[in-house]
Amino acid sequence: MPIAFTKMQGLGNDFVVINAMNAPVSLDAEQIRALADRRFGVGCDQVLWVEPPVDPSRAQFRYRIFNADGGEVEQCGNGARCFARFIHEQGLCDQRCITVETLAGLIELILEEDGQVTVNMGLPRFEPSEIPFKAAKRDALYSLNISSEEQVSVGAVSMGNPHAVLQVNSVDTAEVARLGAAIESHSDFPRRVNVGFMQIIDREHIRLRVFERGVGETLACGTGACAAVVIGRQQGLLDERVTVTLPGGQLVIKWNEDEQEPVWMTGPAQTVFTGEIEL
Ligand SMILES: N[C@@H](CCC[C@H](N)C(=O)O)C(=O)O
What we know:
One of its GO terms (biological process) is lysine biosynthetic process via diaminopimelate. This protein is α+β, with helices and mostly antiparallel strands.
């Protein structure tokens, strides 16, 4: 049976979106990898499924996320904006504000008048056990051993999914591939981790590159942008509203530093093409 899909992108972080509202879809990890393959499949960083919610009294949809390596994960920010646009374009819901279930909890998607999408990304979590990260106690920065001769300093936070953030002098020269791969699978992050390289331009602007868990470096990472701003803000380096420049474009992230208040992300989302594929 061919599978119908929509190819979407948010700042060049790209997705294969599958509508499983009417008929359940079941793909195993090998089939997800085949779909995501850029030479033999459609090609994407993540595969997203739109499903009916488990609890319709709390949410209109269930949003499931699979990395290109086939693993299911908790959260995806750029995907959330594409999810909102997909629902609207497919006529699945005409409300401009929708609530969706994810493995990380509920998130809220708002379609703006100008076509951008704002997402309530939920609360950042800093307790090591919630990230998860092996540390004796919560700290602003942790020293991570890359080898016996090399240590790096990272901030760690969960935006529903795990993130480590390194501050660098320049994202142009940061060793994203080498350090990203080493930190992504570091034994102190038992579920692996997304790794952000943050260059602070000023209190309202950062540049960021992200080596994503289960994918490698992508053109943008929404949860990575939230994580970087939250970490930069906790270190007293950033203001409440920050523009994040990623290789694929810009996001605006807002967080008022109250740990009981959510992080907000605004940015674009676009459909690229639709198709069918036999797996
Ligand atoms: N591209 C995403 C994050 C996708 C999931 C991530 N790779 C993980 O494994 O947690 C985003 O825009 O947030």
